[in-house]
Amino acid sequence: QVQLVESGGGLVQAGGSLRLSCAASGRTFSKYGMGWFRQAPGKEREFVAAINWSGGITYYAGSVKGRFTISRDNAKNTEYLQMNSLEPEDTAVYYCAAASGSNWYSTVSEYRYWGQGTQVTVSS
Q1: How far is Cα of residue 121 from the mean position of the Cα atoms in its chain?
Q2: pLDDT per residue over 70-112, tens digit each?
Q3: Cα of 31 vs its chain's centroid, Å
Q4: Considering the chain, what percentage of its residues have pLDDT values greater than 90?
Q5: Strand 10-13 and strand 111-114: pairing?
Q6: Integer distance in angstroms from the first to the last C-alpha of the chain?
Q7: DSSP 20-44
Q8: Can you point out the beta strands (E) in 1-124?
Q9: Helix residue spans in 15-116 (DSSP H)
Q10: Chain center to CA of 58
């Protein structure tokens, strides 16, 4: 069992930055691939970024590539999402997730554990 708790969301102006954190419980954090997803009102949950168990491989949605950076610190059982050059279209609830496997994955169905979400609002 893995429990995930996100933090770091908030209100920011367009062009600004935020850093999301996801703290995981349990000793097996380093075994799982991790990801970030987001969901805007009235829209489906969409993939943002993913990272494999070691942190050596990352993958991004086209809409955030070059602006967002995913990382992890296995010693601290924590995943991060550094978000730069934020746009109003980035406004959503952001969720961290732990996959069933150790690789990186871009689909919701590959993820077994989910956090409660943190709101990110970008004003124009």
Answers
A1: 15
A2: 999 999 999 999 999 999 999 999 999 999 999 999 999 999 9
A3: 17
A4: 94
A5: unpaired
A6: 40
A7: EEEEE-STTGGGS-EEEEEE-TTS-
A8: 4-7, 10-13, 18-24, 34-39, 46-51, 58-60, 68-73, 78-83, 92-99, 111-114, 118-123
A9: none
A10: 12
